[in-house]
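User: Here's a structure from my thesis project, written as C-alpha cells. My advisor, Dr. K., wants to see whether a designed sequence matches the one we expressed. Can you design one independently, without my sequence as a hint?
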C-alpha cells in the first residue's frame, strides 16, 4: 500500500492502513487478554475474614491487581479498535458490491492489486481506477 499512498488519496490509504492494523491488533490483544484472564483464574480468591486479615499474602493481592489493571487496559484498547472496525464496516456497507469486494480484498484478505485483478478477471489498471473512485467517495464523505 506504500506505493499507492502518495498523492491526493494519502488520507484514504492511511485510513485503510489503520483499519488493517485494527484488525491485526484486535486479534493480538484478544490473545493477550485470554492469557491475563487465565492468570487470574489460577489465583485463589483473597479472603478478608477477621481471623486472616493479618495473614493475607500481599504479594498475591498485588499480582491480582496488576492482572486486573492489564485486563482493563487491554479491554479499553480492544474497544477503541472495535470502534475503528465498526466505522469501516458501516462505511463499506454504503458501497456498491463490486467496490466493496475490492476493498474487502485489500483490507480483510490483504491481497495485492495483481491478485484482485486476477480474481475479478480484469486489468490492474481497472482495479486502480476502482480504488481511486472509492478514495474519492471516502474523501467526499469525510470532507462534507
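Assistant: Designed independently from the structure alone:
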Amino acid at each position: 500500500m506504500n506505493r499507492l499512498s502518495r498523492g491526493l488519496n494519502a488520507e484514504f490509504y492511511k485510513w485503510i492502513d489503520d483499519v488493517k492494523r485494527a484488525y491485526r491488533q484486535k486479534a493480538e490483544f484478544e490473545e493477550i487478554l485470554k492469557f491475563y484472564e487465565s492468570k487470574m483464574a489460577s489465583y485463589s480468591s483473597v479472603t478478608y475474614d477477621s481471623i486472616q486479615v493479618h495473614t493475607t499474602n500481599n504479594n498475591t493481592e498485588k499480582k491480582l491487581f496488576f492482572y486486573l489493571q492489564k485486563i482493563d487496559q487491554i479491554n479499553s484498547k480492544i474497544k477503541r479498535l472495535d470502534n475503528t472496525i465498526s466505522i469501516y464496516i458501516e462505511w463499506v456497507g454504503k458501497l456498491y458490491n463490486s467496490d466493496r469486494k475490492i476493498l474487502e480484498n485489500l483490507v480483510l484478505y490483504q491481497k495485492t492489486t495483481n491478485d484482485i485483478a486476477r480474481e475479478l478477471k480484469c486489468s490492474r489498471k481497472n482495479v486502480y481506477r476502482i480504488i481511486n473512485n472509492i478514495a474519492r467517495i471516502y474523501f467526499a464523505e469525510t470532507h462534507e
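When you compare it with your expressed construct, this may help: The chain has one domain: 10-142.
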